[in-house]
């Protein structure tokens, strides 16, 4: 579902798009369906103005899909970094390796990482789960995130200046095991967007367009299942993972072929570790499906 952007925003974005027509394939229908349409338009304004965007929300709420959709509207390829506690400078910047020239002589070669490639090409860098990275790693990219748009690569001592069009989109799940509180100096370099689970007609549109399920009665029951699971998750009785829209989509796909309760068991329940959480999800499903 494409969003009709206000003229002034559409003009801003077009001016920021690369002129290379090879990127036209990115400007497609579909993508993230927002529960609040202003999230998409406001994030596009921020990117068009050269600002960094931070997407904050629970797992499965569509943060990665929103990042892909923003890139589509901007007609920009994306370089991605998936953060973890093992993330180091090389994961962002690249690494040195040995290669051989035509005479068989060894040479030290540098293989650029996603940050360097995005900066040098003027493309988008997507940093997933940025608050899982070690606090000492992230300051390496501070210069790329502020007005300087530069970093000094400690592996090569090269000063890298971002090409026009370079943008950063990051995503976080707050409160998860393995995550840390995002440094305020780093957070201040972003425009922050709270991303919530979608529901109602938006979720119905997503299920109809992204899954094999076409039984409207069954779709309505899955929408109610999603709403009930989100409520139970907010009460702290189940993990947010159980209310993931991503897991719900998987369950809908399976339910097009197998019984709905079995689909929910495979796509949602079996992902959980706690027996009480599993039982809570089954109880919710029992109220909606035979």
Automatic annotation (TrEMBL):
Highest taxon in the source lineage: Bacteria
InterPro entries assigned to the protein according to its UniProt record, in alphabetical order: AAA+_ATPase, ATPase_dyneun-rel_AAA, CbbQ/NirQ/NorQ/GpvN, P-loop_NTPase
Record domain AAA+ ATPase: where: 49-196
Lineage: Bacteria, Bacillati, Bacillota, Bacilli, Bacillales
Protein name from the UniProt record: MoxR-like ATPase
CDD domains assigned: AAA
Any one Pfam family match given in the protein's UniProt record, by short name: AAA_5
